[in-house]
Amino acid sequence: MHLGVIIAAGGVGSRMGMGSSKQLMPLAGQPVVARSAAIFEAAAVVEEIVIVIDPVDVERCRSEVVEKFGLRKVRAVVPGGDNRATSVRNGMHELGPAIDTVLLHDGARPLLPPEILASGILEFDTGDCDGVVFGLPATDTVKEVTAGNRLVARTPDRSLLWTAQTPQMFRRVVLEKAYQAPPEVLAASTDDSSLVEQAGGRVKMVLGSAENIKITTPFDLAVAEEILRRRENLT
C-alpha cells in the first residue's frame, strides 16, 4: 500500500461565530488542522499529506501549520473549491503518482485515536472491499420524513444504521472513477463514500471512535479541549 492523505479543511466557521477558517482556530494551543495533520504525520504507513483549505488561508496554513509544526509529509497546501467534492478533487491532483490508496479526513476532526486508524487500515488490507468508512452504530432511533411537512415516512431498522465519520479510505482508481460523476452530483455530495457507492464500489463500515468528533460549534470545541485534557492526564 502507498497511502496518501487528503485533509479537507475548507470550512469557514460560521457556526463558531468566525469569519475565517475554523480549522486554523486554536485548540489547546495548536491550530485544529495542525492536530489533525499530526495524526497522519506520525503514522508510518502514510507517505504523503495534502491539505485543502480556503483560498485566503493557503499561505497562513503553510506558515502557521506546516512550517511551524514541522509537518514534513505535507506535499502541498492547495485552495479548496466551491464545494467539498471540488476541494477533494483539487487535493487528488496533488498526490504523487505512486499513491494507490487515498484516505480523506475532515480537518475539523483532530482527535482520531491512532489505534482506531491502525485497525481500520488492517480491515482495508483484507482486500474484500474498495473502501472503508469509519463510523459508529446508531444509538438513536432514526426517522425518515417527507419533504416539506416533515411527516414520518418510515422508521428504518436501527440495527442496520451507522453514523459515518472520517477518515474514509479508498483505492485510488476507484475514487478517481467516482469523481467522474456529473458536476451536479459532485456539488450535492457531502460524503466521499456516497460517490464511490454510486459508482459501484464496495464500501465497508469499520468501527470509529466517539472521541473522533467534528468541531463545528463552540460546544464541540469545549468537548475537544476536555478530551485532550483527559488524554494528557492518562499519560
Helices and strands, with pairings:
Layout: E1 3-9, E2 26-27, E3 30-31, H1 32-41, E4 46-53, H2 58-67, E5 74-79, H3 84-93, E6 101-106, H4 114-124, E7 131-137, E8 144-145, E9 152-154, E10 162-171, H5 172-178, H6 183-188, H7 192-198, E11 203-207, H8 218-234
Parallel strand pairs: 1-4, 1-6, 4-5, 7-11
Antiparallel strand pairs: 2-3, 6-10, 7-10, 8-9
CATH topology grouping: Spore Coat Polysaccharide Biosynthesis Protein SpsA, Chain A
Helix percent reads 25-40%
Major sheet characteristics? 7 strands, mixed
Secondary structure tally: strands: 11
Q: CATH architecture, please?
A: Alpha-Beta Complex
Q: CATH top level?
A: Alpha Beta
Query: Which stretches are poorly predicted, pLDDT < 50 over at least 5 residues?
Result: none
Order of helices and strands: EEEHEHEHEHEEEEHHHEH
CATH homologous superfamily label: Spore Coat Polysaccharide Biosynthesis Protein SpsA, Chain A
Beta strand %: 15-25%
Broad structural category: alpha/beta
Mean pLDDT over all positions:
91
Number of helices: 8
* Terminal CA distance: 31 Å
Taken together, the total number of domains comes to 1
> What Rg, in angstroms, do the CA atoms define?
18 Å
Could you say which overall geometry the principal axes of the C-alpha atoms support?
globular
Strand order of the largest sheet: 5-4-1-6-10-7-11
